[in-house]
Amino acid sequence: MLSNCRRQIIRFVEKRGGIQYTPRVRGLLVNSSWLAGADGIGVLIGMVTSVVIARTLGVESFGILSLIVSFTTMVNQLTSFKMQEYVVKHIGEAAGGGKKSEAATAAKFAFLMESGTSISAFGLLFVIAPFGNDLFIHASNGVELIRLYAFVILANLINESSTGILYVYHKFRKDSVIRTVGRIVNLIGVLLVMFYNLGIQGVLFSQLLSNLVTSGLLLSAALMELYRQLGDGWWRNKCSATGRKWKNDLSFVFYTNISATISLATRQSNVLWLGLLRSPTEVGYYRLAASLSSMVFLPIRPLGMTIFPELTKEVALCHWDRFVKILRSSSLAISVYVIPMVVIISLISSWIIRLLYGNDYLPAVSALVILLIGHGVAHIFIWNRSAMISLDLAAYTTKIGILTTLVTLVGPFFIVREYG
């Protein structure tokens, strides 16, 4: 039944898009449909979780929670690398060429690099927690809350590498099931927080537990896949025996990390700037609007994840016509979903917020409409970063990101201070 449903979705997209997709693109849509299916369930679970948290904590505490999460995420990204992209590109290329030794070496490099940077981020957060609380959060127990949430970084010690391995070997269904389980664990935890009135600490403990469950299952699935694809002794492969160009690998993770950090800064900095320049209550309004907008586009994101391995393969084979075809078809498919959803949700946004979150959150309506329009345009071209990296243009994405970030970081001082 589920397979038939996925086929009907693809036929609908083909009809609305006005084109016939190639087998490769149809396969791309099928793979992304597994993640979209899980994310569809995730939208429902996330919506319920968001409603419970928002109503339980109230606007101001909800804003404080958002600041803690944003500050921790920002620090973690500054010290970590986008190992998921490294894994998909380098293990994907090695596996596609039958070079099991190189694939094993790349996997070991990814695990070691990500675990090292995650531990560094955890230690750094413990040190600068007082600074973050004084500058952005302004809560009496903010330092303790930041340090508590920092344990999520250790829970996700090698999360990106594990996810990348599953994507390389097209285990999208397994990834979808695992992430759905994690969301269910978080929802159960949040419901217990509401029932026992445990406050922000309880919400943070719930998120820590769900991250532990998700990461543990992802790591187990990734290791099983490596054993299946590369053999029992893959982890004993000597790094020096493969002749890998480690300078190129380090350059790749460096530039992709800078690019990813810049991209994250443009998102997370909005919350932190509000914490710096305005009140936690206004942070709560903005965070609710951003959360709702994120849920609307959640089904689109799997396509951005699944498109990267396909683009990497086409570049390796120099199939440029297929490369362009994937980009064009992806944008057309996404537009079929994005344009109607932006219009519909914008029209009923006040009704949704009043019904689910209560009248106290109605000031978030205007922010939600603005975010829907901006995120909608961005998601239609969700492939741009993947396309650049697959073409070994990570440095170029960094330069563009720097220009974008400068606007994002400078703008709040002239706009947020005056208009909120």
Summarize the structure.
The chain is mainly alpha-helical and 420 residues long.
Walk me through this protein's architecture.
With 420 residues, the protein is mainly alpha-helical. It is 85% helix and 0% strand. The protein is built from 16 helices and no strands. The protein has helices at residues 2-17, 23-79, 83-96, 100-137, 142-149, 151-155, 159-168, 172-196, 199-230, 246-277, 280-296, 301-316, 320-356, 365-380, 384-390, 394-419. The longest helix is centred in the N-terminal third of the chain and has 57 residues, at 23-79. The chain starts with a helix and ends with a helix.
Could you name the key traits of this structure?
420 residues; mainly alpha; 0% strand; globular
